[in-house]
Specification:
The protein has a 4-stranded antiparallel beta sheet with strand order 2-3-1-4. The protein has 117 residues and is an alpha+beta fold. It is built from 4 helices and 4 strands; from the N terminus they run E-H-E-H-E-H-H-E.
Amino acid sequence: MSYVTGFLTPVKVENKDRYVESARVAWPLFKSYGALAHVENWGVDVPDGKVTSFPMSVKLEDGEVVVFSWLIWPDRKTADDAWAKMQDDPAMANMDMPFDGKRMMWGGFETIFDEKQ
């Protein structure tokens, strides 16, 4: 089964267009490293929680939205190799990052169930 790298990112509302453009620029790079899909989702119904929540996880500030994103890879090895190569890729170093990366969270996940219509 596939491997997924998932992200939660706080993005200022006024940076939405910049964020979308940064995703458009990043996709060809991710694809060249073996990614099968790249999905970005702008939060529209992301409630605050009492114990935990998406907004709490990224320490969401006024004027920001939680973005929920993922990359799908054929397997973990491809993802691990890609992240290692990206560390030294000048194209990644010069990319516009219109969000606070210190409050971004991510992780890798093995797919255990995947159904489509």
